């Protein structure tokens, strides 16, 4: 599984012959990628804020997944045609992977001018095999936490039942967790690798990523805190 960070909360995830793009927002200082160069099979939207859906209409051949409220919104406002609305707790098979939608603690207003809601914000666990109560040590999975505060669901549901190997957690503070709470999330998730995201895109969320690394270490977690460079790819599992 190849994970590429394009700044902010924008990631591509490649599993065998299937490519996912999460929260497409390429107008940020940590990417030089032209969206036209990205050819995802599926686009996953965690919520409807502009800094997570701004470029959703750049991928006309892709299938877009989100809550029914968000997929309906991007259909109406962005002209996206191929969508699947799903909801928290659901798992769908998409190409060579399984995608489970999990809760995020955040807001989800849509830019409609009258305060419409996009439903409950979400995160996603992308796994090579369908999650079951029987652990599969050969399956690799990645958790994209979306925009979220620290929540015990990470410790009580996501870690024990979905068993992510790696997690991308927001660490920019102000609108989401900061480094200290993000590090607690990493510890609760019991992952092997942890990546900070949703930072440095604009002044209120500028941080020193060394703080994230130190905070992860301070929890006693065995996770490796990995600060990716712009458009850098990290491989987990497999060869």
From TrEMBL:
Residues 112-140 are annotated as: Disordered. InterPro entries: Metallo-B-lactamas (IPR001279), RibonucZ/Hydroxyglut_hydro (IPR036866), UPF0173 (IPR022877), UPF0173_UPF0282_UlaG_hydrolase (IPR050114). SUPFAM superfamilies: Metallo-hydrolase/oxidoreductase (SSF56281). Residues 129-140 have a biased composition (Polar residues). Belongs to the UPF0173 family. Gene3D superfamilies: Ribonuclease Z/Hydroxyacylglutathione hydrolase-like. Signal peptide: none annotated. Pfam families: Lactamase_B_3. NCBIfam families: PRK00685.1. This is UPF0173 metal-dependent hydrolase K6T50_03180. GO terms for molecular function: hydrolase activity. It comes from Halobaculum magnesiiphilum. Keywords: Hydrolase. Residues 7-198 form the Metallo-beta-lactamase domain.
């Amino acid at each position: 599984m190849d994970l590429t960070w394009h700044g902010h909360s924008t990631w591509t995830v490649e599993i065998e012959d299937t490519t996912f793009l999460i929260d497409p927002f390429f107008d940020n200082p940590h990417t030089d990628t032209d969206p036209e160069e990205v050819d995802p099979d599926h686009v996953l939207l965690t919520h409807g804020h502009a800094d997570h859906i701004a470029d959703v209409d750049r991928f006309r051949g892709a299938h877009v997944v989100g809550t029914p409220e968000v997929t309906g919104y991007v259909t109406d406002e962005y002209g996206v045609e191929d969508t699947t609305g799903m909801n928290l707790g659901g798992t769908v098979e998409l190409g060579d992977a399984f995608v489970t939608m999990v809760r995020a603690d955040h807001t989800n207003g849509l830019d409609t001018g009258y305060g419409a809601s996009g439903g409950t914000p979400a995160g996603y666990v992308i796994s090579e095999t369908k999650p079951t109560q029987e652990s599969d040590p050969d399956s690799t999975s990645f958790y994209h936490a979306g925009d979220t505060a620290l929540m015990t669901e990470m410790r009580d549901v996501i870690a024990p039942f979905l068993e992510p190997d790696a997690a991308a957690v927001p660490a920019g503070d102000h609108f989401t967790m900061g480094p200290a709470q993000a590090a607690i999330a990493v510890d609760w998730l019991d992952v092997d690798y942890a990546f900070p995201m949703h930072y440095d895109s604009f002044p209120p969320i500028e941080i020193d990523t060394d703080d994230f690394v130190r905070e992860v270490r301070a929890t006693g977690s065995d996770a490796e805190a990995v600060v990716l460079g712009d458009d850098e790819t990290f491989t987990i599992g497999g060869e």
